[in-house]
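Email to the structure team, subject: PQQ-dependent sugar dehydrogenase model.

Hi all, the expression group asked for a predicted structure before they design truncation constructs. Nothing fancy, just the tokens so they can compare against earlier work. One-line instruction: predict PQQ-dependent sugar dehydrogenase, return tokens.
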Amino acid sequence: MKTLLVASVALFLCLSSCKKKHSGNSGEELPDVELKTRVVTSALSHIWEMVYGPDQQLWITERLGKISRINPQSGTITPVYTISEVVANGEGGLLGMALHPQFNTTPWVFVVYNYGSPYKEKVVRFTYSGGTLTSPLVILDQIPASSIHNGSRLLITSDQKLLITTGDASVSSNAQDMNSLSGKILRINLDGSIPADNPVAGSRVWSLGHRNAQGLVEANGKLYASEHGPNNDDEVNLIAKGRNYGWPSVEGYCNTSGEQTFCAANNVMEPMMAWTPTIATSGLTYYDSDFIPQWKNSLLLVSLKGARLTQLKLNQARDQVSGSKDFFLNEFGRLRAICQSPEGKIYLGSSNGNGDKIIEITK
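Reply from the structure team: attached below.
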């Protein structure tokens, strides 16, 4: 009887402490949505980034180094520029891209890519002119890179700062090293200088303890990121200034004794949601359009291994996930990129290697 009682207590403790860590779909039941899909094009390879431009075109990067504009109605692909310096090693290559918010008057295109030997990563600002990219200016260089865990999303925030997610580049301890650019979310001015209001004077680091963040979005004054875990605990995080997100000492929530000790000592912020088994969380956007009302006030997340679009409904404070629902499971393969048109249509970009697609989602 004593053995049974001990086992029962142990099971109860595991359920109460582990259920949060090993979470997938949870919370309120979300409504079904009748959606239509249309393949815009299927003539791409390893789509990495996709931005809905002010010219009503989809701007995309492909990992081998190509930047193109795609007409979302006709699917016509217009090459913009190929960066010959790009070295696509494993998961590396041409990754994130961001357009200046006032693109019509300041036609800057920011990209981040891997290059060279030894392998490394840099952020370059181009000027769009005459249908191509000119005047390259290196904004940040010498970011450690590897065949895995390179990040890297770019985001220009409402206060005109450039955010860069960097992976740990296969050296997990660098994520906790403030002197390393690896495993961080970095924040710089659009000319590459360091903002005076960063958490640590003279440092580009906005947050640390990231393994491999590949989704980044700002909405309603809040910043959200998605991140790849190891064999467990993919994450979606609410990103706060100067906070530590735990890697490699913490995987997902602070729910083991060792993790709890580290979390208390290092001001660790737990994820809004975590997935075990992992789904390889990637592109992320915030949806608040009336075009698909069932998705209002939700993060929309695409995943690679999970091969799906996941709706993460937010609470009113937008600091917690109140429910989740999956769409298009295994329908288009690995999904890396997501963006939204001003009208509220959603576009997904696949990353299967051959015949990669852009898919339009409407109601």
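DSSP finds two helices and 24 strands in the chain. Residues 172 and 248 are 6 Å apart (CA to CA). Ping us if the truncation boundaries need rechecking.
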